[in-house]
Design goal:
binds magnesium ion; alpha/beta; Citrate_lyase_beta/mcl1/mcl2; 8-stranded parallel beta sheet; single chain; 13 helices; 43% helix; binds ligand LIB3CWND
């Protein structure tokens, strides 16, 4: 174990000092694209204006014979564009693959100054983050980078879930964690073949009335991912990093996608992956608090004064704890509104109405 005194020391001579706080910038949707796919790559400059995070994906969903093309495509896109406030991330290949070493060497030395976060798939434990941490420091030093790259882990193995707290705290580079429901289902030998989302077979049923076991018994579908998302949120909150729901593979089912994203938002996630342009607006809507929730939060904060004691507002008790809940919503709204005049106007209009 590293001494706590050395935790914020650079891991290579000449590497930039690690950050002390993870920057909290909007990341409601991490938009995946294949940089080696010409049709998708051509859409990137326009998509960049609509998303918080653009992610050039090099791992799964990129064919083995297109790995080099994807890597080269990402280098070319990053060099040719300035995406302004939109963050540029990449997902490199898994640490046991034949591609990851070249992914990291090429990306850090060629476009390390353009990249914000490196997403690492199939993380099993802190040892995987430690390996990436040291290698990144060496490459940052070689490239002469002045800003450290951050690392995002995907929670998609049973070991990863068992070790999620140590993963979240493994390095000052740790920016966040995403749920990877497809690989996680396979790793756990779950019997769902869907990429995220629920399953009609995972349900609870009301008790029978009398002797009839079949009629009149309502069933309720349950969320297969509740336990893992909640555990990931706690691990991230404990270490001051950000939790995300991952992919929702049924692109056509925009309704269930919105539900899955909202469950994650309510549990504490800050964003989700968009795999197709149609999922961008869903994530933007879900991961921005609603104007009515923002108005309520601002009203509670205003009426609670110094934030202590207890008051009744519209028949509901508010106290020191509920004002903290309201601050979470209000602070997120302020951060999002700072870059989005339309959202700012919607929040202000709803607040004006609520405060009278
Ligand atoms: C899912 C897709 C394969 C669907 O693509 P396609 O069949 O081309 O869809 P459309 O015809 O509806 O597309 C319309 C146009 O939009 C472009 N397009 C599609 N997706 C994107 C995108 N993500 N970014 C930019 N542009 C996009 C198409 O090229 C069409 O263009 P045009 O013909 O000119 O009109 C495809 O969406 C896709 O590949 N998406 C990304 C998939 C991906 O990244 N998967 C990996 C992440 S999920 C994962 O890895 C699992 C996870 O790790 C886990 O374990 O859980
Ligand atoms: Mg995966």
């Amino acid at each position: 174990m590293r001494s706590p005194k050395d935790f914020f020391a650079p891991l290579a001579l000449g590497a930039p000092a690690p950050v002390r706080e993870i920057p909290v910038t909007p990341s409601r949707m991490i938009h995946f694209f294949d940089p080696g796919n010409e049709k998708m790559a051509a859409k990137v400059p326009d998509i960049a204006k609509k998303v918080d995070v653009l992610l050039g994906n090099l791992e799964d969903a990129v064919r083995a014979d297109r790995k080099e093309a994807a890597r080269a495509g990402l280098v070319a896109i990053a060099k040719a564009n300035d995406f302004g406030k939109t963050q540029l991330w990449t997902r490199v290949n898994s640490l046991d693959s034949p591609w990851v070493l070249d992914d990291l060497i090429t990306l850090v030395t060629e476009i390390g100054d353009k990249l914000d976060v490196i997403m690492v798939p199939k993380v099993e434990g802190a040892q995987d983050i430690h390996y990436v941490d040291r290698l990144l420091a060496q490459l940052e030093a070689r490239a002469g980078l002045t800003k450290p790259l951050l690392v995002h882990a995907i929670l998609e193995t049973a070991s990863g879930v068992a070790n999620v707290e140590e993963i979240a705290g493994a390095s000052p580079r740790m920016q966040g964690i995403s749920l990877g429901p497809a690989d996680l289902a396979a790793s756990r030998r779950m019997k769902t073949t869907r990429v995220g989302g629920g399953h009609p077979g995972y349900l609870v049923r009301t008790d029978p009335v009398g002797d009839d076991l079949t009629e009149g018994r309502t069933t309720y579908q349950q969320d297969l991912w509740h336990y893992t998302v909640a555990r990931m949120v706690d691990a991230c909150a404990m270490h001051g990093i950000l939790p995300y729901y991952g992919p929702f593979g049924d692109i056509r089912d925009v309704v269930a996608c919105e539900d899955q994203f909202r469950n994650a938002f309510l549990l504490g996630c800050v964003g989700a992956w968009s795999l197709h342009p149609v999922q961008i607006d869903i994530a933007k809507k879900v991961f921005s608090p609603s104007p009515s929730d923002v108005a309520w939060a601002r009203r509670v904060i205003a009426e609670m004064g110094d934030g202590t004691g207890a008051v009744m507002i519209d028949g509901k008790m508010q106290d020191d704890a509920s004002v903290k809940q309201c601050r979470v919503v209000a602070e997120l709204a302020d951060a999002l509104a700072a870059d989005d005049p339309e959202l700012a106007a919607a929040y202000d209009a709803a607040t004006k109405e609520a405060l009278g």
